Amino acid sequence: MTYFDEVTEAAEFLRVRLGGLSPRVGIVLGSGLGAAAEAVEGAVTVPYREIPHFPQSTVEGHPGRIVAGRLGGAAVAVMQGRVHFYEGYTPLEVTFPMRVLGTLGVRAVVLTNAAGGIAEGYRVGQLVLLADHINMMGWNPLNGPNEARFGFGPGAGLRFFDMTEAYSKALRRLAHEAAAEEGFTLGEGVYLATPGPSFETPAEIRAFRALGATLVGMSTVPETLVARHMGMEVLGLSCVTNLAAGLGAAKLSHEEVNETGRQVEQRLASLLRRLAAKMAAQVEAEA
Ligand code: HPA
Hints:
It is a single chain. The longest helix is centred in the last third of the chain and has 33 residues, at 254-286. This protein is α/β, with parallel strands linked by helices. The chain has helices spanning 3-17, 91-94, 96-104, 169-182, 202-211, 221-230, 254-286; strands at residues 25-29, 41-47, 65-71, 74-80, 108-117, 127-135, 187-193, 215-217, 233-243. 49% of the residues are buried. Helices cover 33% and strands 23% of the residues. The chain has a single domain, classed as Rossmann fold (3-Layer(aba) Sandwich). Bound molecules: hypoxanthine. Hypoxanthine (HPA) binds next to β5, β8 and β9.
């Protein structure tokens, strides 16, 4: 069975499980940021292990299920937990869920993550929109034969595709609106992705800062690449769970990352509820 066929089978499985619901908005919840899934109304919950060919999360803080239903009135598919390259998954496996969401009909995704803050002035617990990224994973999930059937709409499914606005300006505007309505502001930053799983050395953080990065993490970039290849709009949202290595007093730990996530996840959930409604309206307007 080809990768394309596996994705199609997984998407068909979900289509049946979701009944009449066809989500146009997808949300991926990163480490310790799962609360938004609990806010989904009329939820249909599908554990990843039940979906054919779907990769399984092995990391604490990543439950591993799709929660589909209504968030702020909009039909959404929320991925509670993702899989990472450092777990031993291949680039194709890491991005399998994004291919499935696109095939299911999702046209705009919010990719959330836990990140280390590199820029001066970032506070732990702050939410930052991604304005751009730097891929330091050492690979690209689009390496290999181009599968044009994954694209929908003009300019999608191409071998060579544009990344000048990887993170949609229009969606960022909606996110700023939603945050203002919730009474806080969102920064914008540049996310640099490493393969992980070790945190960075202080020298690496100084190097990344010199390169223009303001956030560092171990996910999101492969998903953005695949989403853009398919023609989906992407909004990236980092939670600064810790100051990057060498910038704070404490040693870095996964516990700290999850603990900060837990403190922020309710605020994130409220933001995502407002945002989902706005995004769905925009996607419908474009369709
Ligand atoms: N570095 C890399 N990934 C991370 C960090 C970090 O400091 N915090 C949360 N994810």
